[in-house]
Design goal:
Blueprint: H1 2-41, H2 50-83, H3 109-113
Helix pairs in contact: 1-2
Length: 114
């Protein structure tokens, strides 16, 4: 029972981080689209704000990479849960298929649009 409660505690914390990082990525995407929109609305040259746009885009890539690390942690914690005898469905880590990163389908907005 203690293992299951501890696993549930960790699963809740992980879910909170996963939700927050997704919300941060959504906000970052919104900011990325707002920057050129604001520049056009102000009738400014394309060079205005390019450095800021580049920095926001770079930060968004880093956020995406961090999200990938949390996905890896999610998979590792699910494996640990099974190792200690706590089924992943009992703690909420089994609600999605667990795929190793190298086996996960490589999809992107660009790939879907092509």
């Amino acid at each position: 029972m203690k293992r299951r409660l501890a696993a549930q505690f960790v699963a809740q914390k992980l879910k909170a981080v996963e939700t927050q990082i997704d919300q941060t990525l959504i906000a970052a995407g919104s900011l990325i689209s707002a920057l050129p929109d604001a520049r056009e609305r102000a009738n400014l040259s394309a060079v205005v704000g390019q450095d800021a746009l580049d920095l926001v885009a770079q930060a968004t890539v880093i956020l995406s990479q961090a999200r990938g690390k949390f996905v890896e942690a999610h998979n590792a914690l699910a494996a640990t849960s099974r190792l200690i005898g706590v089924p992943v469905h009992a703690i909420g880590l089994g609600d999605k298929p667990i795929l190793p990163m190298e086996e996960a389908p490589a999809t992107s907005v660009i790939g879907q649009a092509a």
